[in-house]
Design a protein that fits this description.
Blueprint: H1 13-23, H2 26-45, H3 53-85, H4 87-94
Length: about 100
């Protein structure tokens, strides 16, 4: 094992999060979007009107999951574009 390689068992939680964010930048964005939808839902829960709690929570769950799925899809599209479409551009910049 090379001395410059990363030892995953020696990583702290913040180092692991930083490494994962560099590998897949849309995952933390998806998590922040999820937290934003949940915070918005907690605020709107007070003013839901005549809507039952179960219906409100189901709609909130769908909105939160949709946000995360959209961010993950955008991240996959970005990663595929970077890997396959912009691959020749990166080689030109290296020279």
């Amino acid at each position: 094992m090379a001395s410059s390689s990363v030892r995953f068992d020696d990583e702290s939680h913040s180092e692991k999060l930083a490494r994962k964010a560099k590998e897949a930048p849309f995952v933390p964005i998806g998590l922040l979007g999820f937290a934003g939808v949940v915070a918005y839902g907690a605020y709107k829960y007070k003013y839901r009107g005549g809507m039952s709690t179960s219906v409100f929570l189901m709609q909130l769950r769908v909105a939160a999951q949709g946000t995360v799925v959209a961010c993950l899809t955008a991240g996959l599209a970005y990663g595929m574009a970077r890997q396959y479409l912009f691959k020749s551009d990166e080689k030109k910049e290296m020279k």
